[in-house]
Amino acid sequence: MTTLRIAGGTVVDPANGIAEKVRDVWIRDGRVIATPSNPEEKADRTIDARGYVVMPGGVDVHCHIAGSKVNAARMLRPEEKRGEGEPRREGFRSGTLGSVPSTFTTGYRYAGLGYTSAVDAAIPPLGARHAHHELRDTPVIDKAILVLMGNNHNVMDRIREGEHASLRDYVAWLLQATRAYGVKVVNPGGVESWKQGQGTVATLDQVVPHFDVTPRQILVELARAVDDLEIPHPIHLHTLNLGIPGNWGTTLETLKALDGHRAHLAHIQFHSYGGEPGETRLFDSKVTELADYVNAHPEFSVDVGQILFGETTSMTADGAVGQYLHMLTGRKWISHDVEMETGCGVVPITYEDKNFVHALQWAIGLEWYLRVDDPWRVAMSTDHPNGGSFLAYPQIIALLMDRGYRADTLAGLPERVRARSGLNDLPREYSLSEIAIITRAGPARILGLAHKGHLAPGADGDVTIYSPDDDKVRMFSLPRYLIKQGEVVLNDGELRSAPEGAVHFSQAEYDPDSLREIEARFARDYSIQFRNFPVRDEDLVTAKPWEPEE
Amino acid sequence: MPSLPKPTSEPGDSIEQEHRDGTCVGCGCLCDDLTVKTQSGRIVEVTNACHLGRHWLLQHRPEDQGPVASIQGTEVEASKALEQAAALIAQARFPLILGLTRTTTEGVAAALELADLAGATVDISVSEGDRARLFAVQRVGRVSATLGEVKNRADVVLFWGVDPLTTHPRHWERYSVEPKGRFVPRGRADRTVIVVDAKRSATAEQADLFLTLDPDTQFEALHVLRALLRDAKLDPTHVKQSTGLELDALIDLRDRLKRAKYGACFVEPNPGSSGASARTEAALAFVRNLNQFTRFVLLGMGSGANIPGAEAVSTWQTGFAGEVSLNSGAPRSLRGVTSAETQLARGQADLALIVGKLAPAMLSEQARAHLARIPRVVIGSEAMTSSENVPPEVTLRSSTYGVDTPGTVTRTDGVVLPLRPFLTRRRPTDQEWLEALSRRVREIQKKG
ω before A298 within 30° of 0 (cis)? Predict the structure, then answer.
C-alpha cells in the first residue's frame, strides 16, 4: 500500500462542486481516498501543493493518435520531421513530432500537458488490432478507441431489414471483438455512396445506393442500439457535409432527427457553416442557431475541433472529404477504403490567418466554446491533428479565459471575419472551474468514465497540479506535477516515469445465438477468417519477458 | 519468467494436431485459412494452401537444428551468448541493425527498442523497389483499399507488370478475380481483367485484354494515359515511338478504365531496375487522376516478408518507415545517408546486428567487405550458410517465422493478421532474443 498526500492545494473539482477550495487530496493504491480522520496519519509521500492549482487529470474525448490513418500520415510527411525530435533518455524512448507525433512521444506529450486519458475517435473495426498495437506503445495515458459503424454493410443491411435485435447484437459483438469503448458514426451512408462512385450523400433522406437506407435511419438506429445496450458513451457522431459551406442546416436536421436519443457531436466547428457550397463569399457562422438548439437539449454534447493557424495534417474516415480536400488544395492525398466498413482520407493542410475562410473557421470554433451555456456539454478538442495539435490546448484555454487576448488575435485577422462571426460581441471569459470542466470533468462525464475527471473517493488517482500564472499558456503548458494512478510521473515539471496506461473498452452483451449469422456474413464478405478478426489479450498488453534457464 | 522450451519432444507431440485458420507467409497473399496437421513435431499435411505455401511448410525440418547459441561458431549456453552480444552492442559506437524482413511486427518493435538504447541505425533490408515505392508515396500519396474491397467491388482489374497466377497463386481466387462479391455477384464473369506486361504471362493468358509493354517504357505509357485523361491531343507516331504501343490501344485502355465502376490496379515496383520511383509515382498519380471520373484504387502485391508490418512499427515508433538513425538521440532519417549501405560502405558502422537473412544483392561489394570486417551478431532461424567464411561473433538461433512463431504480420493492404504457431517452438523468437538483449544492454549502461 502506498499513499500520496497532495497537501494544501487549491482544488478545482467541479464534478464534486468544488471550485478553488484549499484542501488535501489523498491517494492510496492508485485511487483517491477520503482524507483520513486522524490528522497524525502519514503518507508515504506528501507533495506540498500550497499555492498550486489541483485538478483531475485531463481527458481528451476526441483525437486521432493511433491506427492505420494516423500512421499513414506519419509515413506521408517526413518533411515535417527535419527539426528537433524527442531524444532518448533513461526510461524513455525517442520520437518525432510534426503534426502527428510518434507513439511514445504522443504519450509523453499528453502527460506533459497534464492529460491522463485520450480517446481515438475513428478506428475501422478491421484496423482495431493495429490501433491497439500503437496504443500499447503510447505510454502514461489511459486510452480507448471508438469503432466506425456508420457505413458498415451489415449495419445497413440489418437496418433495411428492420432487424433491431440483430443490429444490437452485431453492435455489441463488434465492440467486444475490437475491444472498443464506443460507437462512431462518420458521414452515415455517405462514405459508402462515395465508395460506389456515386458521390457522397447531401441530405439525411437521400437513399444510399444499393443498400436502400437513409443516413437518417442509420444514425437514429445506431443511436437507439447504443442506448438500448446501455453503452456508457452515446453515439459519437460526425454527420454529413463536413467542411462544406451551408452545412449547418444538415447539422440542425441531424440533431432534430435524433429525437431524444443521446449523442455526442464531434468537431462541431466543421459543421456550423452558413453560405453555399463552392461560394466562399457567402461563408458565415451559424453557431448561434446550432448552439441555441444544443442549449435547449440536454441529451447532446459537442467537442469543438478548434483550428489553429499553421501546418497540420487532416485525417478522416470520411473518404469523400479526403478527396474534396485534395481537389481543393492540390496536395498529396492518401485514400484507403476498408472493406465492409469505411473509407479514409489523409491530406496535409495549412491554416493561414490571412485566409478569410480559415480565419472564420477559427472564430467559429471559439464561438462554440462561448455560446454553449453549459460547459459540461462542450469539450476541448482540436480534433487532433485535424484543426491543430493537442499541444495547442493551452493556447485555446488562454483565448477562452482572456477576452483581451481574443480581441487582439481577432484584430489581426481579415476584416470580413468580424462581420461574419459574432465572436467580437462575446464578452464571456472562462473561469478556472469552467476550464477544468471542458478539459477533464466534462469529457469524462460525456464518455461515461465514472472514475475519471473528478477527485472524490474511489476516483482514479489521476491528478494534475498547475502553478497559477497570469500567462495561461505557460500555466497550462507546464504543469508542475502529474499523478497517474497514484504514481507521480511528472515531478516538478519533469517527466520521471512512463507507466503503460490502461485500455478501456465496453462489455456490451449479445445473444450468443446471433454469432452463427454474424460469422456466416463475415465469411461471405471479408477477406480474412472470422477467427482471425477479434483483438486478443496479447494485442493489448506487453508480453512477459523471456529469459534463458540458468 | 517463462523459460526456454526444452529441446526434447513434448509428450503431446506424437498426437496428431490440427490447426485451423493458419496464416501462410509464403507470399504476399498472406492467406489466413490454412489447415495444418502436425504430428511428432512435424507438419504432415497442409490444406487450402497453394503449391508454394504447401511446399514451404512441408519442407520445414525441425531436426535440422544445431546449437541454439554460439560464439564464433562454437556452441555456448544461451545466457553466455547473450552477455557477449550485449557487451559488443553496448561497446559499439555506430551499431547497425539490419535484416528484419522475415520476422513478426513484434520482432521489429523489439529491434527498434534495442536500437534506441544502443544508438543504432535501423535499416529494414527492403529492396530498391520497396524504397522507390515509399519515396513515391511520400511525394504524391496513394489511393488504395483493402483486398476485400477488390473482392466485393472491383469490376475492372488491371495487373500492371505483375503475374499473380505465377507469383501469388491464390490472389486470383481469393481477392481479385474469381470471388463473388457484393457488387460483382457473378465473380469472374462480372470483372474485366486487363494485363499490361512485358510478355504474355500465365495471368495474361487468362485476361480479357493483354497489352505488351516494355518495362523501360512504363513511365512513358503511364504519362500518356494521364495526358489522355485530360483529353490531350497526342501525336500517334510520337506515342508509338516512346511507348511501343499504338495511341488507339492506349485510348481504348483509358476508356475501359474510365468505364469501371470500381477499378483496382495491382503493381509492384521492379527491384533493381532504374527509375522505379518515378514509375511508381506515375502509376500512383494516374490512378489518383482516374478518381476524377470513377473510383479506382492501387494496391501492391506484397511478399510474405512482413515488410508492411516492419515499416508500420518503425513509422509509429520513430516517425520514419526505414533507414532511421537513433545515433544522435532523436530519430533521424535521410534517404541514402542513414542507410545500411552507406554506413557500411563508408566504414562507419562498427557492429552489425543482423536479424534474419540478408539478400547479398542488396549491399555493394564495398559494404559487404566492411560487414565482413566488423563484429556481427546474427539472430535467425537458419543455420549459418557455408557462403560465410567467418562465423559471426555471436549467433542466436530463433524459432521459424510463419511456422512456430507467435505474433502478428501485416498484409500489403495494412490488414494485421495473427500468426498461429503450428508447432511447439524449441527456440526463443527473434523478439524474445532482442528483448533479452535490451535488458542486458540497459544493465551494462547503468553500470556505466
Answer: no
